[in-house]
Amino acid sequence: MEFGWNRISRFYHPVCAEQDLRDNPMAVEVGGFKIVLFRGQEGRIVAMPDRCPHRFTPLSMGRVNEQGNLECPYHGWSFDAQGQGLIPTMPESRKCKIDVLKSMTRNGVIWVGGPDAAPLEEFADPEYTFLGQFPVVFECPLHVALDNFSEDEHFPYVHQTFGWDREGAKEVEYEFEHDEQSTLNYYRGPIRKFPLMFLTGVKPGDISHNRFHTLFNPVRSTYESWVTCKSRQVNIGGHIKTTIFFVPNAANRTTLYSFVHARASDRKSAFFQKHFRSFILRFIKKEFEADGAFSSQLAHLPYALNGARLGKYDKPLVIHRRMLERIYLGES
User: Fold this and answer.
1) Whole-number Å distance between alpha carbons of 128 and 119
2) Which of 38, 117, 199, 290 has its CA 20 to 30 A from that of 14?
3) pLDDT single digits (tens) 180-203
4) Coil, strand or helix: which one is 114?
């Protein structure tokens, strides 16, 4: 299945941290389409195709000149924030132009969309505090990365700290529902030990809850995780809500941009979330990197599920493919 730029440019996609774009142009890629980012006058972020219309030289190899315009390194053609070009040997010409893409910043990340990209829906919850964001690169196609985040059955085998262990997997309860636009998975089972567990008040055997809502305009999934006491249904350690955007860079590369939010349930969880923010982010990122390392070994897996013997947790995989095609790619 091809997730080319022409089909997905209707949506904004996160492409890099805002702080990473400094004085020099930066190359990024979405749907196999190469894009250059640069800071024009007054530091304004500009995105355009990474290809000079003159001789197709990558503009990301160039520089931002004194006027705040992006200058091609080959023959000096330059382009302003509106895409108007200046040809040094033909300064009176107004026929040289380049398309300018839509760009914006949110939660410390630069987002890029095509000229007709629809506004990005707000994904932050006002009841939660933003902890931070990070990208993880998966060297595999979009469908392989998404499949990994469509079920929790792999927790005991791919992860060392998330969710439950092999014994706990026997006690997991599962619910699934969907509508025309999204899916909702809900897992709960006995939590295993994890680093600094004692600081959170969570004990082995308490119940780990993982509920995730997946949408396709663009492709993203919001995971809400919390723990309740085994003996009484009381929340321990607060809630963590992570929204993951799946960005297909190229045929075998997908970047997952994760935005982590937290909500405290008591004074102890409030203290932990405030003073161990960096630990929480590293903890989540490490587990996502484990997903990435494993999924990268599955890059060869076909898009079609024909012949696969699917289990009780695999219904989302089938439905997600239909929604990828109908909503994300705009196929009828």
Assistant:
1) 22
2) 290
3) 999 999 999 999 887 766 666 778
4) coil
156 is written with which tokens?
A: 């005991």
pTM for this one?
0.94
* Phi, psi angles (nearest 5°) of residue 138: -110, 120
Complete DSSP assignment for 38-65: EE-GGG-EEEEESS-TTT---GGGSEE-
Give CA–CA dist 205/293, Å, rounded.
28
Write the secondary structure of 258-322 as one string of H (helix), E (strand) and C (coil). EEEEEECCCHHHHHHHHHCHHHHHHHHHHHHHHHHHHHHCCCCCCCCCCCCCCCCCCHHHHHHHH
Are the CB atoms for 287 and 279 separated by under 8 Å?
no
CA 261 to chain CA centroid, nearest Å: 14
C-alpha–C-alpha distance, residues 324 and 217, integer Å = 9
Write the pLDDT tens digit of every residue in 213-268.
999 999 999 999 999 988 767 777 789 999 999 999 999 999 999 999 999 988 87
Pairing relation of β-strands 33-39 and 26-30?
antiparallel
Judged by phi (left if over 0) then psi (alpha if -120 to 50, else beta), residue 110 lies in beta
Q: Interior CA angle at 239 toward 130 and 159, to 5°?
A: 100
